[in-house]
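Worked example (supplementary).
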Amino acid sequence: MQQDFIENLVGEPLIDIYEKVMDGKRLSYNDGLKLYHSNNLTAIGFLANIIREQKHHQNTYFVRNQHINYTNICNKFCKFCGFYAKKGGPKPYEMSLEKIRSVVKKYINYPLTEIHIVGGVNPRLSYNYYLDMLRMIKEIRPDVHIKAFTAVEIVEIARVGKVSIENALKDLIEAGLDSLPGGGIEVLSKRVHQELFQKKLDGDGWLDVARTAAKIGLKQYATMLYGHIETAEERIEHLIQLRELQDETNHFLCMTPLSFHPEGTELSHISTLTGYDDLKNIAISRLMLDNFDHIKSFWIMNTPEITQMSLWYGADDADGLVQDYEITYITGDYGNKKQFLTYDNMTRMIREANRNPIERDSLYREINRGENNSNIRTKAMKRLHVIK
Ligand code: SF4
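After joint prediction of all chains, the assembly is encoded as:
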């Protein structure tokens, strides 16, 4: 009876994938393609949820974090990017160390555990700018975990410092760097690199930074930007390359599929993605990346509502409360609005989805604040996401 129900739910085309999932077997390239070519989202979510619950039961993680996007001046001109300063787009800015000090101090009474720093590739910034930034933040908040600089920024930092990638990473670690964020490569595909971001680091360069980080014990996050010009085949190749690298290094903490937002980019003619696409990519990432502990749904890019749904489609991490994120805006209104969730909003969103909210640090260790889990920002909100 139960078997009949499952066969009806999953459907004949995906039943062999169901059997592999139940037997704990790794999915192949063809399995991944089959999932992308299926429109049975309920079945794909059901399969992903099996693995999600095997790994994490009802637990759903989130972090209290602040973002610092120190400059939007960039010489890479990626076609998918709406963040970098350009004519008719966002105005250029470059934060001085004093400005960074003030944005860190702004949240000094807020119990953050992570500061996430990324920016454009700005050739005017010196090697010491990056090192001093990290040292200063650690001086102000010694307990905070600094997750900073995508692979393309690391290459730039090494270039201006005239040092190897390894030595740049070692210097950054000494100054306060704790892990590397994902990003810096959107999809590991030569074709997409050539068409969308040819001035930026290519796949081999990205893999080199990742391997170097792993070699010196630096943890890293992984991402995939989907919904621009990439094909289903390229998405699967990307996921399999990440999986193989994780087999080799075991240094990735989490995978975040990132939903592409065409507004304000050179690809504004491309249709905006739907919740269907977001849930499908999260679920397929969960199914393909058997050696990744965590799959994150980044609510800034796919909305809190889809993130809430995604907790049944493979995601076990809802990212963070997020302060001062400038890269993408749900409304497409760049540079004018702040985006954050309160602690109460985040935990309510997770509980409403019948999952168990757990505050974590950047290394996925549970944080127990006892009675002090109160909301520091208590502003009443009509909707889950605050755009003010
Ligand atoms: S994605 Fe990064 S490297 Fe590319 S243009 Fe935007 S800021 Fe620059």
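Two points are worth noting when inspecting this output. Residues 2-387 form a domain with the TIM Barrel fold (CATH 3.20.20.70). The chain is about 40% helix and 15% strand.
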